[in-house]
Design brief:
Helices cover 37% and strands 21% of the residues. The chain is an alpha+beta fold and 261 residues long. It folds into 2 domains: 36 residues; 208 residues, no CATH class. A 7-stranded mixed β-sheet has the order 1-2-3-4-6-5-7. The protein starts with 12 loop residues before the first helix and ends with a helix. It comes from Streptomyces formicae. This is Secreted protein.
């Protein structure tokens, strides 16, 4: 005895296309969320592969200067009282070794991770009354060594020691012509956890005045701070510029350090 089979309805082309589109969209959203988590510094994001972490240390010579130090930086809410700021790049220093770009004690402090190269640029604010040198130290270290240095800087307060202030980069013929060691007013140093890089910034007055009591950015930005660097917003200048250069580095490094699938 045979039974007549029920005919199978043909698959509608429009439904097939819609299903494929939904699948592609879903995969795109998942990939975008993972990349977004890395760029935002989300600790739950998947870690980058050892190879891509190594690739990040070559960005100092493989990326155009505008990718590392954008000509203009916009700081929405980055000033005192969450005022908006804007900074203009006035010069980029030639890349060089730590011995030339850093004070001896700071160079000694970062020696355990091995200094490959230092790149620096100097910015001024929209009114040309403040100047800030921001730099990146590219290291030879792996994740464990960078994590150890990050812990040491934080635990021992090395990022707030006045004898470890980063060196300024004066630029003749500009607002930063008189920006030397004695003009350094506020600074910040950040040892990154997800790239073999140390980001720093140091700020001062564009008129070249000597600052006898420089303050780390964390102190100069504190509520109620009354020092000259604090009242001039120089802690905000250093921190605001360093943060944006760090973000630019992460954005530039994304293709090389995006989470593995």
């Amino acid at each position: 005895m045979t039974t007549r089979l029920r005919p199978i309805r043909a698959r509608h082309p429009a439904r097939t296309a819609a299903a494929v589109a939904c699948m592609v969209l879903g995969l795109g959203l998942i990939g975008g969320a993972a990349a977004g988590s890395w760029l935002a510094g989300d600790s739950t994001a998947a870690p980058s592969t050892p190879t891509s972490y190594t690739d990040a240390r070559t960005l100092w010579h493989s990326v155009p200067v505008d990718g590392l130090f954008p000509p203009t930086l916009k700081g929405a809410g980055a000033g005192p009282g969450r005022a908006d700021r804007e900074w203009r790049r006035i010069a980029v220093a030639p890349d060089g070794p730590c011995t030339e770009a850093l004070d001896p004690l700071l160079a000694k402090a970062v020696r355990p991770v091995g200094c490959l190269r230092v790149v620096r640029a100097t910015y001024t604010d929209a009114t040309a009354t403040t100047v800030t040198t921001v730099g990146m130290i590219f290291t030879e270290a792996d994740r464990e060594a960078m994590a150890a240095l990050r812990k040491r800087f934080s635990g021992e307060g090395l990022d707030e020691r006045a004898d470890l202030i980063p060196r300024a980069h004066p630029v003749p013929g500009t607002a930063a012509a008189g920006f030397g060691d004695k003009q350094r007013a506020s600074w910040t140093v950040s040892v990154l956890a997800d790239a073999p890089v140390i980001v720093y910034a140091v700020s001062g007055f564009a008129d070249g005045r000597v600052v006898g009591d420089p303050q780390p950015a964390s102190e100069a930005m504190a509520a109620g701070a009354t020092s000259a660097p604090a009242q001039a917003g120089l802690g905000h200048e250093a921190k605001g510029i360093a943060d944006r250069i760090e973000r630019a580095l992460r954005k530039t490094a994304a293709p090389a350090t995006e989470p593995s699938e």
